[in-house]
Amino acid sequence: MRDAFVGRLLSLAQNDPRIVLVTGDLGFGVLEKFSDKLPKQYVNAGVAEQNMTGLAAGMALDGKIVFTYSIANFPTLRALEQIRNDAAYHDANVKVVAIGGGFSYGALGMSHHATEDLAIIRALPQITMFSPGCLWEAEECAEALVNTAGTCYLRLDKSSAGRTNRDGELFAAGKLRQLRFGGDAVLLVTGGILGVALQVADMLLEHGIKLSVYSAHSLRPFDEQVLIDAVRSSSACFTLEEHVVAGGLGGLVAETCMEAGVYPKIFHRFGLRGGYSSIVGSQDYLRQRFGLDATTVSSRIRQLLQATA
Fold first, then answer.
1. Is residue 57 predicted with pLDDT exceeding 80?
2. S-S: 77 plus which of 2, 73, 191, 215, CB 3.0-4.6 Å?
């Protein structure tokens, strides 16, 4: 995802001198082409994410569109006060880019597990939020960030669902994308775990269960009306995210449905529950350990649907 995003950002920056990329001393293999081609639009702020964010806010208030770029929790949780006070409060054109959402850096341990970021950033007002699930969405989010005024957050994942766009499809920020069509249940997913959601839909189809799968690449603004219409047309609603269930996509969907007076017969959030992980391993391994793999999710959906049949 990061390669797709940086590639699109480079092409945009070549035609817009306002775009500046600030990195926290990483990503050289990915960012080298950007720094070589546009040295005046590239800054290495070092391993100092709080300073990086303050710098970005100042540049943004001077008319730049500034992207901060670092791993997992470092451009978000470590720099949370600067995002809140320096960027969001002033509605500055700062675009916080976190690579390695969820368990992307699972082998590096809990410090690199980005599993609470969506909930924490969602608690801050005035921040537009993107969490793409495929390469095409990541590319389109780069352009959406440039065209969206104010502070934004982009969560990129190591995994992705490849390219899920249809020929001629136009990206619509703030809108849900329906990738599977079925009337038995609704499954909403955000981030690179979209690939798992599509596997789940295929596995359930073998058992005669037809899922409607929606990619929630935009969490703020959120496509409330499409969600409400989808839930009203089905008796079951599920959410899937590589993130804690509190405050993430599942929480957002639950809040939206409750406030709209829409109550599905079955509602379940697939995500992380309980404490922090002391386990290390690959992203796929950790997904399996925490019940976020396609086999576990599809089996649980079948159980829930059969229990209320």
1. yes
2. 73
Query: What is the CATH number for 231?
Result: 3.40.50.920
Strands 128-130 and 218-220: antiparallel
Number of structural domains in the chain: 2
Buried b (16+ CB within 10 A) or exposed e, 208-219: ebebbbbbbbbb
* pTM, full prediction: 0.96
SS3 content of the chain, % helix, strand, coil (to 5): 40, 20, 40
Domain of 117? 2-156
Q: Determine the angle formed by the axes of helices 294-307 and 194-205, rounding to 10 degrees.
A: 50
Could you tell me if residue 171 is inside a domain? no
Span 231-279, pLDDT tens digits? 999 999 999 999 999 999 999 999 999 999 999 999 999 999 988 888 9
Judge contact between 267 and 301, C-beta under 8 A: no
Question: For 169-189, what is each residue's pLDDT tens digit?
Answer: 999 999 999 999 999 999 999
Same domain? 32 vs 74: yes
**Do residues 11 and 144 both lie within one domain?**
yes
As a whole number of angstroms, the distance between CA 49 and CA 61 comes to 18
Q: Are residues 108 and 183 in the same domain?
A: no
202 & 231 share domain: yes
First-last CA distance in the chain: 39
- Domain final position from 93, 122, 156: 156
189 has which bridge partners? 215, 240
- Alpha-carbon distance of 104 to 157, in angstroms, equals 6
129 shares its domain with 188:
no
Quick one: what percent of the chain has pLDDT higher than 90? 94
